[in-house]
Write a structure and sequence with these properties.
This protein has about 260 residues and is of the alpha/beta class. Helices cover about 40% and strands about 15% of the residues. It has one domain: TIM Barrel (Alpha-Beta Barrel), CATH 3.20.20. The longest helix is centred in the C-terminal third of the chain and has 19 residues, at about 180-200. The protein is globular.
Length: about 260
Amino acid sequence: MMHHHLIANFKMNLLDSEIRSYISKLSQSSVLRKKRPDHLHIGFAPSFPYLQSCRDQLTHTLAPLDLYAQNISEASQGAHTGEVSAQQILDCGARGSIIGHSERRSIYHETPETLVKKINILKHLKMRAIYCLGEETSDLSDRDLDYLLKDQVKILKDFPPTQLIVAYEPQWAIGTGRDAAPQHIHKVSTYIRQHLDTAFGSVEAAGIPILYGGSVNARNLSSILDLDHISGALVGSASLEFDHFNTLIELFIDANL
């Protein structure tokens, strides 16, 4: 069965005390205590310094929550001052990492070669990759958009599909308040699904979830979850306030995915 995910990306926000309060509220939330099918997963990605604190606190929550890092180094270990390795985030309790987020691509100029190195490290450690892809501008032709997505998907071909989550993020919608129209998300997710089929074969690719990320909020989540190829959402700024994310969790659980 396809697994569905609602994942909060805190980015460089919230301090330890704020995250502790957030998790405490989650653990007491009647929404999260709702019985949900095993294929519905809720997770979040805090900043590096708080991973271990989150892991320790999550051991006391009744409802299971997945913990992710926001990034990893392209190196496994060694003289890389300021970097954090996949092995270190695994040691802190993370089950995987976001890879290739649009902000990493655009601000920190991460290249496909860099992403391949990170993907290979996660593969070696049997960790999950939340691989982000998408276009920079909203005015690409369908042909150019399809070609871009094909190019972004092909670097995944050697990664175990059971460890893979793909997140479609139109870069022009990240942090702008401009969410992509459902018709556009459907078109792009169809392209992505076709390219995953090519890379992994249709049987293996069928189990790879495709999430949408890009100004997701309580107003648009339900319509996004209704789309054929979408299996959840990667949520940015709307996840920072507990009450808002709690509402998103309720919409996610009640969507009958």
